[in-house]
Design brief:
Elements: H1 2-25, H2 28-33, E1 42-51, E2 55-60, H3 66-77, E3 88-94, E4 103-108, E5 111-116, H4 119-135, E6 139-147, E7 155-159, H5 167-179, E8 184-188, E9 190-191, E10 194-195, H6 204-207, E11 212-213, E12 219-220, H7 227-239, E13 243-250, H8 255-260, H9 289-305, E14 310-314, H10 321-325, H11 327-335, H12 341-358, E15 362-366, E16 379-381, H13 386-394
Parallel strand pairs: 2-3, 3-5, 7-8, 8-13, 13-14, 14-15, 15-16
Antiparallel strand pairs: 1-6, 4-5, 4-6, 9-10, 11-12
């Protein structure tokens, strides 16, 4: 996936330039509106402000869930502002007309009012209030915000295979995601350069696949997350209304797994965990049922750790050279009446898609999954450009 990282760097550089330009061109009113990220649907400031020393108490209407009450104390009051006897009152008001993630935030002389219909809505109202408090520390502006997200999937993708992040850092990232109302954490856990998730049926995935020798001879690892650590992260994310979506790469980007279990590949030869960027030739043997059974066993443990409806399987940048020379793969092509190795990859992905569906899960894959069979509920993530997303959408698939 080297191409994706180059693209991401270009986009980041572009955004930095645009933000710098906007910061010099926006009026004061526009800058105040931009204080809430993402910018709300409607934000009405007045010229008035209210002296602010803290929140004296929280008053919640009868229909507000215990979850929302707990969140406001734990995430807002305890961590942002302490209670003050002469502070503002925070009112939580139920509004049945609002959607799942919709909220309204009003600041006026009588107090701070958050209106929502769900825990999600109240939570996002809290985040906007936290953003305002970070800027207007001593005097809050009198205002009204009405907001509803434009996109249901607002994600952040983190690759911990190449560069490992510990649990504390992951939680810090989740906190920032929540602050900016992102709701999907796409956790890229395995690749050529490292296998980072404990799989109890296959311990060598982490003891061998979780370690690599760098090009300078130093050792990187073993780095991986235990299943208990993953459960902890998933629960921490859920408290912040973030769904954790694991990415378990197949059939390519599998060098770390093959280093641990050489029988997964066509050549059955020992490999070292990848220590450079790029695409590696050795991949899972698509003609060997043992490789598919291995993936099903791995995914079974993944299902137990991640309640998300989605599992990302990668399915990108898979070289076909080993399959072209592999008797088992060529036999599979003949037996299944496949046209070529590209259809062989589609067959492999279809087998996994069926297994996911049997277990109540849906598949996400990079846009290479458009090259063959595509399950009707499969989600396409396009990294080659918007065109692949448009193709998927026209075919009725989420993109």
């Amino acid at each position: 996936m080297l191409g994706k990282y180059k693209f991401h760097l270009i986009i980041i550089a572009f955004l930095v330039v645009m933000i710098t330009m906007l910061g010099t061109q926006m009026s004061n009113e526009e800058q105040r509106g931009a204080a809430i990220i993402p910018q709300p649907n409607a934000l009405n400031y007045s010229d008035e402000s209210i002296g602010f020393v803290g929140i004296s108490k929280v008053v919640a209407s009868d229909n507000i869930s215990e979850e929302s009450k707990r969140q406001v104390y734990k995430i807002l009051v305890d961590n942002v502002v302490k209670g003050h006897s002469d502070g503002l009152v925070l009112y939580l008001e139920d509004d049945k007309s609002m959607g799942k993630e919709q909220y309204s935030l009003e600041i006026k002389e009588e107090g701070i009012f958050i209106f929502a219909n769900t825990d999600n809505g109240f939570f996002y109202g809290f985040q906007s209030l936290k953003q305002l408090l970070a800027i207007h520390q001593n005097a809050l502006p009198v205002l009204k915000i009405t907001d509803n997200p434009r996109f249901s999937w607002r994600g952040l993708h983190l690759d911990v295979s190449r560069h490992f992040f510990g649990v504390d850092k992951i939680k810090e990232i989740l906190d920032w995601m929540a602050f900016y109302k992102l709701n999907h954490f796409h956790w890229h856990l395995v690749d050529d350069q490292g296998w980072r998730i404990e799989i109890k049926n296959y311990p060598r995935l982490t003891t061998v696949g979780g370690v690599r020798t760098e090009t300078d001879g130093s050792t990187y690892g073993p780095y991986f997350y235990t299943q208990e650590q993953i459960k902890d992260v998933v629960n921490y994310a859920a408290e912040r209304h973030i769904e954790v979506v694991p990415e378990i790469e197949l059939p390519g980007h599998s060098t770390a797994a093959i280093a641990a279990y050489p029988w997964l590949s066509c050549l059955k030869k020992e490999l070292k965990v990848g220590n450079t960027w790029g695409v590696y030739e050795d991949v899972y043997c698509a003609g060997d049922d043992a490789a598919i059974e291995f993936m099903e066993n791995v995914l079974t443990e993944v299902f137990e750790l991640f309640p998300s409806h989605y599992v990302h399987i990668g399915a990108d940048e898979c070289p076909k050279g080993r399959w072209e020379q592999c008797p088992k793969c060529q036999e599979r092509i003949k037996k299944e009446k496949l046209a070529d190795e590209y259809e062989l990859q589609a067959y492999f992905v279809e087998r996994i898609a069926d297994f996911l569906k049997e277990n109540g899960k849906a598949l996400i894959g990079w846009d290479e999954i458009l090259q063959g069979y595509l399950a009707e509920d499969a989600v396409v993530m396009s990294w080659h450009g918007i065109e692949c997303g448009e193709i998927a959408a026209r075919g009725g698939n989420p993109a």
